[in-house]
C-alpha cells in the first residue's frame, strides 16, 4: 500500500528551499538492514569483499551528486535471538555478519571519486583516542578532507565480550568516556601542531619546525595521552563529526559534539521534539549556533513508476527476505529474544510489560498498522526491507511528498537512505526520486569545477575547519594564532 499523500509542496516556496543532504547508508557486510535480500538478482551486496563493488558504488553516487556514502559498523554479532550468546542465526542469514572494517574501503573509493564524502563509523568504546586520531588523520590526508566520522558508543554485548569485558560498560558511562575520548582527539588534531609547522625546507633539510609541535599532556579519568599527535595537520584536522544518540545522554553528547546528527523515527511528528531538544541544548548549554548542527533522518524508499508498481516491487523484494535474519536484527536492537514466542502471538498483549512497552513504543508509530496484530512474522516482514525505521513505498511523487513532510514537520536537513538492494535502491532513487526533487528545487546545483573536491565540512557547513563555537575549536593552533592552552586535566 502506498503511503498517505499529504503533500506540503504548496506550502513550501521553492526559492526558500535549502538543498537537501542526500546520504547513502551501507555496511561492509552482505545484509545491512535487509536480511535475505543478498540473494535478489539485482543485489550485489554479497560482493562486499570485492573492492570494485565499492568503487563502482562510490562512482555512481558521486556522479548523481549524493553528498555522502555513509558506512555503518558494529564490532560483534547480533546474538540475542535464540541466545543468549548465539551467533548462529546471524551467521546463517548473513544479517550484519560477517562484517569487514569500513575504514579500509575509503582510500580506494576516494581515488575513484571527486566530491563524495565518506562517513565512516568508528566506536569510541573499544578504541583508543591516540590510535583512532591517527587513522582518521591518515584518511583525512588521503581523501583530501572528504572524510566524516560517525561517532558511536556501540550497543552489542558481543562486542564487549570480545574486547575482554564481562559485560558492556554502563550506557551513560559509555557517553562520559566518549566525551573525554573526543576531548583527547581534539587536542591531538587541533592543538598539537600549528597549521604551518611543516616547513619542508629543502635548503636547511628541516621537515617540520619542532617549536610548532607540542605535547598535549592529557591525563584524565579514562585516558593518559602525552602526545604529540603522530600525524601532521590534515585538511580538516578534526574530521567532520556525525553522531546518532537517541537517549538523554546521547542527545546531550550530540548537542555538544555533533556537526550532523542522525535521527531515527517512524513519523516526522515524533522526530521534531528530538531535533528541537538537540538544537536548544546545543545553544543554551554549549553556546553553539544551532545552524551548525545538520539533522539527517534514516529512511527506506521503494519507488517505481506508479504507487501500484511500487507495491508490486515491494512484494517481490519481500519474497527474498529472511525471517530468521530479521528476528536476529530485532534481537540485537531491542534485546528481545523472539524465539521464546509462538508465531502468531500478538505482542501488544503479552504479559511481559518490558517487552510490551518496547514493542508498543515502536509499533504504535508505524503508519497504518494500528489494528493489525503485531506477530513475530509481521515484525520480521517490517524489518526485512530496510530495518526498523521510517519507510515509504510509492510513485516518485508519493515518495517526494513524504520526504517533504519530514523536512517541514520533522525539521530535518536531509536523508540517510537505507539500502534494500545495492546498487538497486540507489539506482531507483537516482532514476525516479532525484528528478522530482530537482523539479521542486530541493537538489544542490551541479558542483562548479572550481568548487570540486571540497572537504566534508565545506560541503555541510561551508568551512574546512571547526567553527568557533565547537568545543574542539578552543584547542585550534592556527597559523599566526596563539598556542592553545590545555586545561589542567583531572584524574
Ligand atoms: C542513522 C543511524 C546510524 C547508526 N549507525 C550506527 C552504527 O553504525 N554503529 C553503531 O554501533 N550504532 C549505530 N547507531 C546507533 C547509535 O549510535 C546509538 O547507539 C543509538 O542511536 C542509541 O542511542 P543511545 O545510545 O543514545 O540510546 C546508529 C543510529 C542511527 C539512527
From TrEMBL:
Region of interest: Disordered: 472-491
Comp. bias (Basic and acidic residues): 472-483
Highest taxon above the source species: Eukaryota
Ranges for domain Luciferase-like: 40-410
InterPro entries: Diverse_substr_monoxygenases (IPR051260), Luciferase-like_dom (IPR011251), Luciferase-like_sf (IPR036661), NTA_MOA (IPR016215)
Cross-referenced SUPFAM superfamilies: Bacterial luciferase-like
UniProt GO molecular function: monooxygenase activity; oxidoreductase activity, acting on paired donors, with incorporation or reduction of molecular oxygen
Family: Belongs to the NtaA/SnaA/DszA monooxygenase family.
PANTHER family: ALKANESULFONATE MONOOXYGENASE-RELATED (PTHR30011), XENOBIOTIC COMPOUND MONOOXYGENASE, DSZA FAMILY (AFU_ORTHOLOGUE AFUA_3G15040) (PTHR30011:SF41)
Name of the molecule in the record: Luciferase-like domain-containing protein
Lineage of the species this protein comes from: Eukaryota, Fungi, Dikarya, Ascomycota, Pezizomycotina
